[in-house]
Amino acid sequence: xxxxxxxxxxxxxVFLRDRADFFFTLAFPLVFVVLFGFIWGGRxxxxxxxxxxxxxxxxxxxxxxxxxxxxxxxxxxxxxxxxAVAKRAVDFGLVWNGEKLVLILNxxxxxxxxxxxxxxxxxxxxxxxWGSGLSSPVEPVKVHVGKVSAASWYHYIVPGLMAxxxxxxxxxxxxxxxxxxxxxxxxxxxxxTPASGWPVLMGIGLIRMGLGFFSAGLNFALTRVLxxxxxxxxxxxxxxxxxxxxxxxxxxxxxxxxxxxxxGSAAAAGMILTQIMLFLSGVYIPFEFLPPGLQxxxxxxxxxxxxxxxxxxxxxxxxxxxxxxxxxxxxxxxxIALFLFGQLFLRPEKG
Length: 351
Prior knowledge:
Elements: H1 2-17, H2 19-40, E1 47-52, H3 58-64, E2 70-74, H4 78-86, E3 92-96, E4 101-104, H5 113-131, H6 153-183, H7 187-192, H8 198-227, H9 235-259, H10 263-280, H11 292-298, H12 302-313, H13 321-345
Parallel strand pairs: 1-2, 1-3
Antiparallel strand pairs: 3-4
């Protein structure tokens, strides 16, 4: 126990002195929470539509006022409306030429223009139905699958970032810190003593697990304080996913160390693995946006199930047995991989 506590204290001091490690473990995940918060954390605002329409065409103005997802601003002529679209004072423009509505788009907004075109077609259908004294036969109703009544994409990103903070800390506990200690020759004198190498692994694992939990908690707190985003948390389920995520992450770190025998390359391999999971597991990019082939790859990665599990624990989506069993299996994998790692790498070197 004394050796374990000494190693635990030493690892805390090493972490506090290593600025790069401190940044990538704690500060780096917060950067993404803040960045994505300013992009998607705010409430949805109506699309601004500029309209050039004679005053006598009250039918068009009345029809547009029935669409809650847009706000209409009237302009006196085509030129002023075009200038407003170019300067992004409005999102797009519509001009009534007496026969039809002409759509004005800013060519620089190539990512948003397809949505603006879709919205303009909806406006035209609304005007036609309104002019005929009819209403749309289809009324869309949004149904939220989780306990969050108005979930935005930011609600989906935050649990994924929390899962990745813990997963990344677990991976680098073994593929980073342990590999570094082997490369610098720190493990050799420790393993040469009567003390077992297991206290080293347990000390590093506990420190990294605690740091991962702390980082995830900081993400959650910053989201609540800065962007006023709330979640109906299930504490027991959240603790379960956090534990299996940390164990599985350390197991992945051990797997990386098995495959990359050169210690200096293990941390780089762990970083590559982390980045692959970030982009293919629905954490940064909506999973539905990925091609079917990449979705198939993403469903094999443990980060997909960890992110979905955290979303279920935070009430964003409804959880299922699939995620529970996959996460439990991931945690058991971590325990087995750590045991094998200890048997192979935490033995005194011969010679």
